């Protein structure tokens, strides 16, 4: 297990990058704690896999350093970094049995035969493949092969870090849930430093102690699921986390009030004059549809998703989403919305701006 430090790290796939836009991974400076489980979350092309491959040693960064427990490993091989990596698509030895595939990393390091047998049995149970241990991998399905790949990544107990690059893509939905649960159990039992790349917020939020949200080659926020939900540090985090995502509304800020087309919204803090693109962000869960006070809206449709209702409405020509309780009755007279002031965030040029106590 290891603390992982990203020191002035950046990467471009171009031989002579001219400016920031030429970098797939823009400058990063972060410490990731020893023994924690992190999820790298973001849309395709945001730099997640690039960063993971730099950490693993499969890719050398254009600038900066990678340190494991304050030791510079930037030029060290993958083997010397003592990590295990599981890729998006299965990487298995087709001519080997499932048992030999799982045992391979341990045999390669000279582990005792009895330990290998016990550990392989434990991992086979974890991935639900005890009955297939004697079968060759060649005849197995893609999701079975991916489970082997996942198991081989988890079989060693002495690694500095376990890295997962969208490992559940080819796994059926029910098995995804089971394997995520097993990964969490593995982490709690052995305390490995784990980094899990995904574009699926459910996977990220249910797996990780801390979620690392990436956008356009940057880490825009590292936080717990609760922090990402309640205080998105960037509008992308608000949009990407949650279903539906955060409502982002252009506004003018005056002290502890936001002005939206002449209507006012109370803020939890007071602000000095703000320059740039100014917006407020409020989660649909903290928006209430009413008949009386508030901002005028026009309800377009109501979607009943079982546990709650999602109301799609227009606010001064822009779409706004409202989450209402399952038992809430939506009437034609409900033509206004109010925001919970404690959960309204202010953004300047997409970044959250903290105010001061009023």
UniProtKB/TrEMBL annotation:
Xref: Pfam families: ABC_tran, OB_MalK
**Sorted UniProt keywords:** ATP-binding, Cell membrane, Hydrolase, Membrane, Nucleotide-binding, Transport
- Name all ABC transporter domain ranges: 4-241
Alphabetical list of InterPro entries matching this protein: AAA+_ATPase, ABC_transporter-like_ATP-bd, ABC_transpr_FbpC, ABC_transpr_MalK/UgpC-like, Mo/tungstate-bd_C_term_dom, NA-bd_OB-fold, OB_MalK-like, P-loop_NTPase
Q: Which residues form a coiled coil?
A: none
Kindly give the Gene3D superfamilies that the UniProt entry links to this protein: 2.40.50.100, Nucleic acid-binding proteins, P-loop containing nucleotide triphosphate hydrolases
Q: Supply the EC number(s).
A: 3.6.3.20
Q: Cellular component GO terms, alphabetically?
A: ATP-binding cassette (ABC) transporter complex, substrate-binding subunit-containing
SMART domains hit by this protein: AAA
Molecular function GO terms recorded: ABC-type ferric iron transporter activity; ATP binding; ATP hydrolysis activity
SUPFAM superfamilies with a match to the protein in the record = MOP-like, P-loop containing nucleoside triphosphate hydrolases
Q: What is the similarity comment for this entry?
A: Belongs to the ABC transporter superfamily.
Q: What is this protein called?
A: sn-glycerol-3-phosphate import ATP-binding protein UgpC
Q: Which organism is it from?
A: Thalassobacter stenotrophicus
Write the gene name.
ugpC_1
